[in-house]
Amino acid sequence: MKQIKFLTMALVAMLMTACIGFKTEATVDVTVMKDGQVQKGVQVYRFNNEMGVETTLYKTNSKDIQTTNNKGVAHFDLKSPEDLDPSEAGIVDTETFHFATFDNDDHRNGVVSVKVSTGDKKQVTLEIITPEGRDD
Question: What is the largest CA-CA distance in the chain?
């Protein structure tokens, strides 16, 4: 009897998981620039706003990584339910997301923050800054 109950619960859990559809709710295109030039092949890290911009100090806090294309653009799809609330629920969700780049020593060398609402197609520019005395 316990096995049947356990199997039924497992089946119900699988069905509920299958019903959750991850849907793109908004997009953000991040153009990476350095010294006035677009930067191709640069990894851009996406961070949610859980602890503010300080979250971007460490790569391990990132939720997604995209690499810039030949035009210097990294494209991010923000999906429900993990990034924004599902639009099927009739909710327009607004969240702040942070995007950052890092140098070869894993020091953050660029960051940009943007508020995104359900349905947005945002474009932002992230400027890589090389600190004085360092040759990145």
Answer: 71
